[in-house]
Design brief:
The protein is of the alpha/beta class. The chain contains twelve helices and 13 strands. It folds into three domains: 3-98, Orthogonal Bundle (Arc Repressor Mutant, subunit A); 103-172 and 279-307, Periplasmic binding protein-like II (D-Maltodextrin-Binding Protein, domain 2); 177-273, Periplasmic binding protein-like II (D-Maltodextrin-Binding Protein, domain 2, 3-Layer(aba) Sandwich). It has a six-stranded mixed β-sheet with strand order 8-12-7-11-9-10. Helix 1 crosses helix 3 (41-55), helix 1 packs across helix 4 and helix 5 (116-128) crosses helix 11.
C-alpha cells in the first residue's frame, strides 16, 4: 500500500468520529447528537472517545449536568467542519458529474462587485451548455486565489485581478470612482468633483483585508496625480464605510458600480472625475481545462457593453465605455 492509499484510508477512518464530534459540539448533548445522526448514543460516545485517544486530549468537558467544548475542542471544531464540508463537496461533485456527464463550474464572486457582465453571460453559457451546473459562491479575492491555486475553484470574478504566479486573468470591465457624504455635507449637491478636490478632504477608504489590490489601485491613482490624501478612517465593506462617514470621519470613496446599487437614506453620491478607474475581471489557474471556462471567457470577450454607463451619468455624457477586453476594445489608462 502506497502513502496515498494509506492517507485515503485514514481520511475515511476519521470521518465518522469527526461527524460525531461536530454533532456533539453543535448540540452540547450526546443524546441529541445521537438522535441527529440516527445512531445509538453509545456509538457516538465511543467515536468521540476514539478521537480523543488519537489526539491525546479531551474534546469536551463533561459533568453530570452539562457538556462543554474544551480548548482542544474549540481548536478542532472549525477544522473538522471544513474537512467534512470538503468531503461532502467532493461527493456532490462526483454525483453531479456522474448524472450529467459535465463537471459543474464553480465560480466565486468578490463582495460588492458589479456582476452585470456575469448576469448577461450566464444565460448564454447555460444555453450553449444545457447540462452545465453553475455553482456560484461569494469569497474575498485572497480566498479565491488560495482556492484557485489549490484547484478547489474553477474561476473567480474579482476587483483588480492581481498578477499571481500560477494564475491567469482576463479584464472584463471598469468602473469609475464615487465619493459619498452625508446629505448636509458641503459637496453633497455637487454634480461632480475633481480628484484634486476630493483629496482636500479627509477620506474614508475600504479595508484592504478583502482585496489589498483595490487599495493599491486607488493609491496608484492618487499618487500618479501627485496627490497625498489624508486617510482618516476605513470601513470593512461599503456598509462599514457608510457608518464612518455618517459619524463624521470624512468623505467616503468607493466604486461607482457599488453606489449605483446601494442607495442609502441620508447619503449623497458624487462622481469623481478621473481618467483612471477600478478594473474587474476573471482569474483562473493556468492549467484549468474546464470547457465552460473557455466558453465563458469567449462570451465575455464578445460582450462589448458597459454595465456601468446607465448608472454613471458623467460617463454617459462623455461617451467613455471603459470596457476592457482581450480584443483591444476601449481601455482606461493603466
Amino acid at each position: 500500500m502506497n502513502r496515498s492509499e494509506i492517507a485515503n484510508d485514514l481520511v475515511v477512518d476519521h470521518l465518522r468520529p469527526l461527524r460525531c464530534f461536530v454533532a456533539v459540539a453543535d448540540e452540547l448533548h450526546f443524546g441529541r447528537a445521537a438522535e441527529r445522526l440516527l445512531l445509538p448514543q453509545s456509538t457516538v460516545s465511543e467515536q468521540v472517545k476514539k478521537l480523543e485517544l488519537e489526539l491525546g486530549g479531551q474534546l469536551f468537558i463533561r459533568t453530570s449536568r452539562r457538556v462543554a467544548l474544551s480548548g482542544l475542542g474549540d481548536l478542532l471544531l472549525p477544522e473538522a467542519r471544513r474537512a467534512l464540508a470538503a468531503v461532502a463537496h467532493a461527493y456532490q461533485l462526483a454525483r453531479d458529474t456522474a448524472s450529467t456527464g459535465v463537471v459543474p463550474l464553480h465560480i466565486a464572486i468578490a463582495a460588492d462587485i458589479d456582476a452585470g457582465e456575469l448576469a448577461h453571460a450566464f444565460p448564454l453559457l447555460r444555453a450553449s451548455m444545457p447540462a452545465l451546473k453553475i455553482v456560484p459562491s461569494q469569497r474575498s479575492t485572497a480566498d479565491q486565489i488560495e482556492a484557485l491555486l489549490h484547484r478547489r475553484l474553477h474561476v473567480g470574478f474579482v476587483w483588480e485581478p492581481p498578477s499571481t504566479d500560477g494564475l491567469e486573468h482576463q479584464l472584463i470591465g471598469t468602473t469609475g470612482i464615487d465619493a459619498f457624504v452625508p446629505d448636509d455635507h458641503t459637496i453633497a449637491d455637487r454634480e461632480q468633483i475633481s480628484l484634486e478636490e476630493l483629496c482636500e478632504h479627509p477620506l474614508v477608504l475600504f479595508s484592504s483585508a478583502p482585496n489589498p489590490w483595490v487599495r493599491q489601485r486607488f493609491s496608484s491613482i492618487v499618487h500618479d496625480a501627485g496627490l497625498e490624501p489624508l486617510i482618516a478612517a476605513e470601513g470593512f465593506g461599503y456598509d462599514g464605510q457608510v457608518a464612518e462617514v455618517l459619524a463624521g470621519a470624512g468623505v467616503g470613496v468607493t466604486a461607482r458600480s457599488i453606489t449605483a446599487t446601494r442607495a442609502m437614506p441620508g447619503i449623497a453620491h458624487v462622481p469623481v472625475i478621473s481618467d483612471q478607474e477600478w478594473r474587474r475581471g476573471l482569474i483562473w489557474h493556468h492549467d484549468e481545462t474546464h470547457p465552460a471556462l473557455a466558453r465563458l471567457r469567449s462570451i465575455l470577450a464578445d460582450t462589448d457593453t458597459d454595465t456601468d454607463t446607465d448608472a454613471d451619468p458623467w460617463r454617459a455624457r462623455h461617451g467613455r465605455t471603459g470596457v476592457l477586453s482581450p480584443r483591444g476594445a476601449k481601455q482606461s489608462p493603466p
